[in-house]
Amino acid sequence: MTATLERVDVVRTAPAKGRSRARTRHRLTVLAFLAPAILGFALFFGYPLIATIGFSFTRYDLINPPEWVGGENYAYMFADPLFRTAVYNTLWFVVVLTAARVVFALGVASVIARLKSGVGLVRTLCYLPSLAPPVAATLVFFLVMRPNEGPLDAFLGWFGIEGPLWFADPVWAKPGIAAVVLWVSGDLMIILLAAILDVPQEQYEAAELDGAGPVRRWWHVTLPSISPVLVFGVVNSIILALQLFTQAVVAGSAASGSADVTGSTKVLGFPENSTLTFPVWLYTQGFRYFDMGYAAAMATVLFVISFAATAVLVQRMRKATHQEQS
Amino acid sequence: MTAAVGVRERPFAWRKTVDWVAVHSLGLALGLMFTLPIVFVFLTAVMSDGQAFTEDLWPREWHWGNFLEVFERAPLLKYLGNSLLYSSLATAGMLISSIPAAYALAKLRWRGRNVVFLLVVGAMMLPPQVVAVPLYDTWSSLGLTGTLWPLIAPYFLFDAFSIFLLRQFILTIPQSYVDAARVDGCGEFQAMLRIVVPMARPGIAATALFCFLYTWNDYFGPLLYTSEKPDQWTLSLALSTFKGMHHVQWNLAMAVTLLIMVPAVVLFAFAQRSFVKGITFTGVKG
């Protein structure tokens, strides 16, 4: 009996051994291709993510060793009035900017898609501002939205409207920053334009035969077909709003007119903390006041929120890959 | 068939004309809306010191010399050098590290591939502020804060966005080309270098462009690591402090604002098609 078993084994292992050797080789090849990425992911994402959570339970100023304080940093969030301001400001951007950006980009893309000639030219013109560094784009709008003398106020003046102080007005600073971001949302426009142009022409023709006008065709054919791309646009805009930093810092320091604008604490959030977004307050606490523990606690909160937003997108992508494979 | 449609639609021809005019004037208005701000920046950049930021929006005299004067007022060439160092080294590093990773995600079959891909997407979506504290802590203990190396080094190992984008491009290369190379006795590395890299050239170009532009435009990174060391500043960081630091007028600040956009516009003009395709690819799988 043992003999038979052994014989069976011998018969089976010969090709199996070759196969498993090939498999091991294949695995090693995959590993070789991915080795730098795995190392990089571990060093620049894996480790710092865990370490951020660790630091968030400590008091740490970069000089003295971290000191364990338990949940003190998280408790302090509820006592810190500027934390509340920062959360409010960032939430404002998540809600208003996300809605405005998706609607605006969709509107522009829909217009470009309907052009019979000059599509390439208009698309290029609409995309061009997106090439500007965020610092430059913000300064551009600081010029355009200059109170009283700027081009925008001159334009509003034709209609008898007197513009506000824009970036110097706590009510209008956030809409001003939102305008900068809309001006540079060419990426999303191009993505939506491609999606709209991808909608099969037959669907429009069928709708037209049913007597649907252009508006109804857009609502009943275009919109449902591009809904996955719209979801991408929403998630992408939320992530963008959550990490809004540069525009807020530059707008605040330009409007304050201060000479010291390298992210100095005096000008961050100007005017009246209306541009103090969550990442700006995180940066101020961690890298201006060197309260690394508190900054890490805020980073952990930011991580949880952006993780939730990403999970929505990933869920969608998973569905898409499953459909692709089946 | 076309004739029949034409006949049926003729009574509505005037409506089509109105529609055409409406859509095209809207398109023109959009084009103007997006470009006018840049026109105003240009007009301000060539104004005299006294005229900039007044009610007068059209230059009374054209001071073309402003574009040269900014180089005398601030060490712009130094900042330019730093920006070039950051952007070109990061892009080179990204190409070395990301092409093999993207190849493994697109053309090699292995268990866990989807999970790894989702991790890449997750890393791509992570706000940079989340990991800033421990990374700054580590780079500071290595004595490398105050330089651009903490920003450059990661690209030689891992850049989530580039891996993602390159994978999307490489996926469009038919599997049969890669299989044929394998049958001909090519190893995977050779199949990647000889078949996939040449075929994915537009995609690689687009990814390199995005990487270059992202680092060129980056503000948070240079601010975090080099804000205390002005001789390490990049153009983007320097621009944010330009008005205050160098006590220059707004016309000069606007001249720098224009100059900093030049490389991006030139690159875009040369590679517009790959560029637009690359942007489309970032959203295609959403």
From TrEMBL, chain A:
<feature type="transmembrane region" description="Helical">
    <location>
        <begin position="292"/>
        <end position="314"/>
    </location>
</feature>
<dbReference type="InterPro" id="IPR051393">
    <property type="entry name" value="ABC_transporter_permease"/>
</dbReference>
<feature type="domain" description="ABC transmembrane type-1">
    <location>
        <begin position="87"/>
        <end position="313"/>
    </location>
</feature>
<feature type="transmembrane region" description="Helical">
    <location>
        <begin position="218"/>
        <end position="242"/>
    </location>
</feature>
<dbReference type="InterPro" id="IPR035906">
    <property type="entry name" value="MetI-like_sf"/>
</dbReference>
<feature type="transmembrane region" description="Helical">
    <location>
        <begin position="176"/>
        <end position="197"/>
    </location>
</feature>
<keyword id="KW-1003">Cell membrane</keyword>
<dbReference type="GO" id="GO:0005886">
    <property type="term" value="C:plasma membrane"/>
</dbReference>
<feature type="transmembrane region" description="Helical">
    <location>
        <begin position="125"/>
        <end position="145"/>
    </location>
</feature>
<dbReference type="GO" id="GO:0055085">
    <property type="term" value="P:transmembrane transport"/>
</dbReference>
<protein>
    <submittedName>
        <fullName>Carbohydrate ABC transporter membrane protein 1 (CUT1 family)</fullName>
    </submittedName>
</protein>
<keyword id="KW-0812">Transmembrane</keyword>
<feature type="transmembrane region" description="Helical">
    <location>
        <begin position="91"/>
        <end position="113"/>
    </location>
</feature>
<keyword id="KW-0813">Transport</keyword>
<feature type="transmembrane region" description="Helical">
    <location>
        <begin position="28"/>
        <end position="50"/>
    </location>
</feature>
<keyword id="KW-0472">Membrane</keyword>
<dbReference type="Pfam" id="PF00528">
    <property type="entry name" value="BPD_transp_1"/>
</dbReference>
<keyword id="KW-1133">Transmembrane helix</keyword>
<comment type="similarity">
    <text>Belongs to the binding-protein-dependent transport system permease family.</text>
</comment>
<dbReference type="InterPro" id="IPR000515">
    <property type="entry name" value="MetI-like"/>
</dbReference>
Automatic annotation (TrEMBL), chain B:
<feature type="transmembrane region" description="Helical">
    <location>
        <begin position="250"/>
        <end position="271"/>
    </location>
</feature>
<keyword id="KW-0472">Membrane</keyword>
<feature type="transmembrane region" description="Helical">
    <location>
        <begin position="84"/>
        <end position="103"/>
    </location>
</feature>
<dbReference type="GO" id="GO:0055085">
    <property type="term" value="P:transmembrane transport"/>
</dbReference>
<dbReference type="Pfam" id="PF00528">
    <property type="entry name" value="BPD_transp_1"/>
</dbReference>
<feature type="transmembrane region" description="Helical">
    <location>
        <begin position="148"/>
        <end position="170"/>
    </location>
</feature>
<feature type="transmembrane region" description="Helical">
    <location>
        <begin position="21"/>
        <end position="47"/>
    </location>
</feature>
<dbReference type="InterPro" id="IPR000515">
    <property type="entry name" value="MetI-like"/>
</dbReference>
<feature type="transmembrane region" description="Helical">
    <location>
        <begin position="115"/>
        <end position="136"/>
    </location>
</feature>
<dbReference type="GO" id="GO:0005886">
    <property type="term" value="C:plasma membrane"/>
</dbReference>
<keyword id="KW-1133">Transmembrane helix</keyword>
<comment type="similarity">
    <text>Belongs to the binding-protein-dependent transport system permease family.</text>
</comment>
<protein>
    <submittedName>
        <fullName>Carbohydrate ABC transporter membrane protein 2 (CUT1 family)</fullName>
    </submittedName>
</protein>
<keyword id="KW-0812">Transmembrane</keyword>
<feature type="domain" description="ABC transmembrane type-1">
    <location>
        <begin position="80"/>
        <end position="271"/>
    </location>
</feature>
<keyword id="KW-0813">Transport</keyword>
<dbReference type="InterPro" id="IPR035906">
    <property type="entry name" value="MetI-like_sf"/>
</dbReference>
<keyword id="KW-1003">Cell membrane</keyword>
<feature type="transmembrane region" description="Helical">
    <location>
        <begin position="191"/>
        <end position="216"/>
    </location>
</feature>
